[in-house]
## 1
Amino acid sequence: MWSYEKKLQYPVKIKNTNPKLAQFIISQYGGPDGELAASLRYLSQRFSMPTDITKAILNDIGTEELAHLEMIGAIVHQLTRNLTTDQIVDQGFGAYYVDHSNAVYPSSAAGVPFTAAYIQSKGDVIADLTEDMAAEQKARATYDNILRVCDDPDVRDPIKFLRQREVVHFQRFGEALRHVTDLSPCKKYNGVTFK
Amino acid sequence: MINCDMKNEAVQSGEKQTCPSGSKDALMREVQAACFAAYDLQLYLNTHPTDSRAMMMYTAAVQRKKALTEEYEKAYGPITADSAAGTMPWQWIKSPWTWE
């Protein structure tokens, strides 16, 4: 089970509002390569993982992704608080504002609501871990794109932290995949014989 | 007004399970009951932040939860990764996991 700790994994302290930037960054909240998709993917896949190492890595990274979801939510919230009407209209925030006011809603940068179609849970350890490695690289690439369009150091700092975590997760998933493929060929996991 | 039997109700509300007393499953059930009692009081205190009777019950529940968790972990292994500090090999990853 889970319990909540009243702290962020890495601090988010943003001084200046910037609704345009918030609209880009919300993709990491509820978009195709976002933190919600990552968390649901790993926490769902863990049930069919065949070994201690693969169960632990999906359980723990799936949990950390929830902490990242919280950080992205905090960034979006801080970028959209105390907005003036001019800012809402001039910075292209009107469409989002009409539907959600200043609330944080899981959608992509293009406004598509979150969908479980972003993830797979295949029940095949090779397929699942390979998807997970790709997911980490797609999230890393999204953070690179965000860093290209963002010059506020208050936002860049936590985004760089999140980008680095994608790299670490990719590394750990790679090790988990190698551990699985290195298993003795006569050992069966989930009915799959590794050759 | 808080129901003073809340904690006992929480313990008794589940289906009767056949865990021999003193077994791993029986101790886990006590940990679960103690943690749930503390958590349920936490929710109650959120909407009744000045209820001193509830606070007394919460304080007692948290103490009980900590003591039982320590007892369980000493006998059967870590419930949190922090409690696996110092184990070699690393006991945190060891099956069975909660869903098994």
## 2
Amino acid sequence: MRQRRIAFGPGAASLILIVVILCMSMLAMLTIASARNDEKLSLRSAAMTEDIYSLNVKAEESLAGLDEMLVSARQGSSSQDSYLQEVSTLLPEGMNLEGNIVTWKETSTSRVLVCAVRLTEPMENARYEWVDHHLIMDEMGVTFDD
Amino acid sequence: MKQEKHANALLLELLIVIFFFMLASTTFIRIFGEARKENIRTEARGVALEKAENISDTLYLTSEYDKVLKEAGFDMDGDAWVLPVEHCKLAACMDETDMVSGKLIRWDIQAIMDDEVLFILPGARYWPEVEQP
């Protein structure tokens, strides 16, 4: 039986090189695109988390300011009415008093943190208690309650 | 004579192919290396973010932050508390402000990888001083 010779003619190596380079280029493009997309997603996730935690920090700072004011308002008031009257005059900017509930909003570029505390009576130990603390995401119209 | 010429042409072609393959390889290796670096950074950011969120949420629940950070594995390094995590480190800086009505504890948890800050997660908790009747 005659054995068939495999011939490696001119141009075969170049052809293989072209195919290999094309395959490698495709793989490299897919790899880098996938890595970039993953990084973008990870950056967005980190930015969103930072944003939400920053809103919470702002809310705590506003609460600290409000509580400091409540301490001074309590000193000059004996009844609930005079206390609330004093609070309404001393209330920090951006806060609203409705009945005995103080509400305010902390905003960032696309999120709003809605906060509300109920003021307790002047005779009680605690000066306030949280009644509302929820996040509204503008871009999706989604609301998260804490 | 003809066969010898043919062999020489093949050898020359192979040499040229190897040369171009090496040129292309350097570019591909660089691209794959860059992608690998980005993947490591992304993974490190994800792991560190999850860890930082957990720590921040735990810090929110207690005023004894030293205890919480020690239990989480942090060590004091200068002014910051440092914890090595996958491919990067977390550095927590605490700040306590005494007020008339209570105290405000603020913190920043930074994820640092090769001197690059991956993110800064801020946190705060206000602890009111309860009035005695």
